[in-house]
Design goal:
The protein is about 10% helix and about 55% strand. The chain is mainly beta. Mean pLDDT is about 80; it is low at about 1-20.
Amino acid sequence: MKFFLLCSLIFSGCAFKDDGSASNNAREQRDRDNLNKIFAPVLGTYEGQFTGNDPSQKVLNAKIGLYTQEEKVGTDPNGEDIVRPVLFAKLEIDLIPDYDTFLRGKYFPETGELTLTNIKGKDSVGIQSIRLVLSATQGAGDLQSVGGSIGKLNLVKTNAAYQAPTQGDLYDRNERLRKIYTKAIGEYRGKMFARNPTKPQEAFKEILLKFYIRDLKTTDGSVRPFLIAYYEIVGEPIDIGRTMVVQYRTEKTPEEVSMASDPSGPMSYQISISAVIKENLLIGTLSNQQGYIADFKLSKKDESYHNPNPAEASRFRLISGRYVGTYKKNGEANATKIIFTLTTDELKNSDGSVYSVLRATSITPNDGDLSQRQQRELEVKYLPLQDSAKIEMLALPESAGKGFKITAVLNKSTLSGVISYQGGDTANFTAKK
């Protein structure tokens, strides 16, 4: 029995001397059957709780599924593959989908000890390994990251069966992330107060933080949703590079968010923000590498009710339509076609009252290729003037392209202005209805 167990623990080839007394196939089947008997008592679904070492972290629901898959572990004297069942595990911890981990197992039936190691190896982030002691119906042990212990697992076997994960598990993880991130989506506004202002105008400023979700590629090529923050100091020129990936810690009490701008991005300086969420308030600190530190308390904008405005609705319908023209980036000789479409949508409040919103899309060639057109949804700000209107349109960064901001004036049926691209490039454009 121990000989067969050793084969499973080292996950390497176990070649057997061919004495001619039985076929290789028969021996292979016997070896697989013996390993399956060893693994059978521990296979299944275990559910319970994860208690982190961080006292601010909530006690979270946890689940581990143990299953086997056959793998090639060597070749026999005849050059044929030797296949053995190998023990695997899938870990899930509620509120931390990034802890979803596939692990490879070593099981010691004499002691009930189970050692699970991340299949991505030591370079992986997040969960590195799990050490459990299993009884007939329970499991308890330690959860390890690359930096050491991060908490304890206490589990109960709830099912003797566990279906081996498929590609659908990635979809499930992404849906869990979206569900978590949805709670933070919205716009937060308020004042931030500098701790040691060097100029009177630095003493306090109005700040806006807008959270939204974008699907982006990860380093391993897979696509997953990320929570993104757009940052703006109200009344100052908008730097369209001020978008940051947010670390959202819903497992903490209170919930925490942290973010930092990309050092290689277009901003003239980098900022970092850390805050906690308490009901509809965002309370935290903003700092930059120049030594500026400010504290803020922002309120989440109530987006559930919009005041009906018939005059605004009439203006929106009047300017809605298709605007066709050209734009030319600075330094380029040739102009490129661009199309804007402004539309008016009528939406209803919970009390049945109707309000109007102005929406916009832009269509441009993709990197100069007229056959590959890129359509972007734009956020619109509309300011009516005496004989014209000022319109700002913002395309937030997404996997399909970088962000850009449009500042334009609508005079009668002509829309003209400047497109500012993430990275610093600008282009002038004119389009007619």
